[in-house]
Amino acid sequence: MTGKVVVIQGLVKRFGMQEILSGVDLEVAKGEVVVIVGPSGSGKTTLLRCINFIEEYQGGRIHLDGELVGYRESAGGLVRLPDSIVAGMRADVGMVFQSFNLFPHMTALQNVMLGLTRVRKLTPYEAEGRATSWLERVGLKDKLRAYPAQLSGGQQQRVAIARAVAMEPKVMLFDEATSALDPELVGEVLGVMEDLARSGMTMLVVTHEMRFAREVGHRIVFMDKGVIVEQGAPRQIFEQPQSERLKAFLGHFTKPT
Amino acid sequence: MDVVITSGPLILRGLLVTLEVSVAVLLLGTLIGIAGGLLLLYGAWPLRLIARVYVDTMRGIPQLVLIFAIFYGFPALGLQISAIVAGILALGVFCGAHVSEVIRGGVGSIPRGQMDAAQGIGLEFAQRLRYVIFPQALARILPAWVNTAVEVVKASSLVSLVSVVDLMMAIQQIVGRTREALLLYAVAALLYFAINYTISAIGVRLEKRYAYT
Q1: pLDDT over 70 for what percent of chain A?
Q2: Residue B77 has pLDDT above 90, yes or no
């Protein structure tokens, strides 16, 4: 497992009787940008939520940097780890949500600082320095003291990215980070994501932005009905799709020019 | 009017006891309510069930029955208990059930994504509540909590029935001696109203302060 940041084997996730993920195998190497595409309801979001254990999983294994996520092995079964240990693991996984989920009672700066002071145990001075530099990097130098309600969707999502990445996670997960944005605001968020990808961040990106997938992704994973149907280099996936399901899915998008 | 002045010290002492009982009940009830509300929301199912049964049962029993049950019931079990402690306990348990629902409602109304995001940056459960959920829930909890506080002050007059000399009992004793019923009960009503008006006024100010949107 050397060089693999995320290793997922046979992942099964059920909500009650309904199976959302039916045996997913996926490895993500350090510095790799993996883009997951697929129709809604295919399990993409659930897959991401399992990786940082916001959702429990019922079968298979997820390893983050060699460590089993959320459970410990015990006589052939899995035993849930206590919340404090799970929390420590989550700190190493940055997550960006479709609906931003900024803390509305805190300024942009406080949003980014919270994890740094309470989880990373930085002093307020160090935390403010690191938070400020990340907010500057995502282009929000003049919005440090703004509350989420005073920011546009694109600005909020950039704060959310800064909040996640400032924790210096081993991998960043993007769950349809631009789907809730007005079209004219999508670009600024994708720009920040591309900048992160170029800087060598390991990323798992769920998106419907096919141009981003093609230009920034190292590998495209196509999911449908809880399994990975097909994966490969962007060119291969977009120009020579093998499965009928992928062909049908790509047919819904106008060809990126 | 002379009656009110000459009985002033007695009324004042009663008023203090009423305030004491009310504050103690609110403290106890709020502690129970935070625990109860969190159990209702996040408890494993057996605990959740216990909390649910507690809340629903307590809300369906008259406070006076609870007070008598504890005051007369505990000594029968060999537990000596003073009237004021029995009253505080009974009303505290009752208040706790109400506050449990208030907390459940307020905390439960915070969008799921807030908890997700708090988990996402690696906060532990208690930290997620303290830094992310509670500050937002406070604005939604306060109005209902203030209502409960007002109800508690009014219900505290029931402890007079187990011979605690609170404001109600003090007034009754003076009425017994002086027969100035109308005047003295008017004074009692005014004092209860003054306490509750103050609570409501403080509540409104706090609400404004903790409303961030």
Answers
A1: 98
A2: no
Whether the CB of B135 is below 8 Å from some CB of chain A: the reply is: yes
- Average pLDDT on A212-218 reads 93
Pull the structure tokens for residue A105: 């009672």
Q: How many CB pairs under 8 A join A and B?
A: 75
- Token readout for A33 is 């940008």
Contact A62, A11 (CB under 8 A): yes
What would the pLDDT profile of A122-131 be if each residue is shown by its tens digit? 999 999 999 9
Average pLDDT over residues A48-76: 90
Q: Determine the average pLDDT of the residues in A135-154.
A: 93
Q: Is the pLDDT of residue A1 over 50?
A: no
Judge whether A91 is closer than 8 Å to chain B, CB to CB: yes
Q: What is the distance between the terminal CA atoms of chain A, rounded to a whole angstrom?
A: 38
What is the arithmetic mean of pLDDT over A13-36?
Answer: 93
Q: Is B50 helix (H, G, I), strand (E, B) or coil?
A: helix
CA B45 to chain centre: 27
Residue B1 has a pLDDT of: 64
Which residue from B121, B131, B212 is facing A167, i.e. has the nearest CB? B121
Give the pLDDT confidence of B80-120 residue by residue, as tens digits.
Answer: 888 899 999 999 999 999 999 999 999 999 999 999 999 99
Please report, in angstroms and rounded to a whole number, the separation of the first and last CA atoms in chain B.
50
Using an 8 Å Cβ cutoff, are B163 and B72 in contact? Answer: no
Question: Domain B2-209 carries which CATH code?
Answer: 1.10.3720.10
Give ∠ CA B131-B136-B138 in degrees, rounded to 5: 105
User: How far is B31 from B60, CA to CA, in rounded Å?
Assistant: 20
**Range A189-194 contact pairs with CB under 8 angstroms and sequence separation of 24 or more:** A189/A154, A189/A157, A189/A158, A189/A161, A192/A138, A192/A139, A192/A158, A192/A161, A193/A161
In chain A, DSSP assigns E strands to 4-15, 18-29, 33-37, 59-64, 67-68, 71-74, 77-80, 93-96, 171-175, 203-206, 219-224, 227-232
Q: Please tell me which residue of chain B has the smallest CA distance to A118.
A: B123
Angle subtended at Cα A9 by Cα A6 and Cα A12, rounded to the nearest 5 degrees: 115
Torsion angles phi and psi, residue B80, rounded to 5 = -75, 135
Q: Which residues contact B93 (CB under 8 A, 6 or more apart)?
A: B28, B29, B32, B58, B66
Q: How many angstroms separate the Cα of A160 from the Cα of each of A32, A189, B137? A: 21, 10, 21
Tell me if A237 sits within 8 A of A246, measured CB to CB. yes
Q: Does A9 touch chain B (CB under 8 A)?
A: no
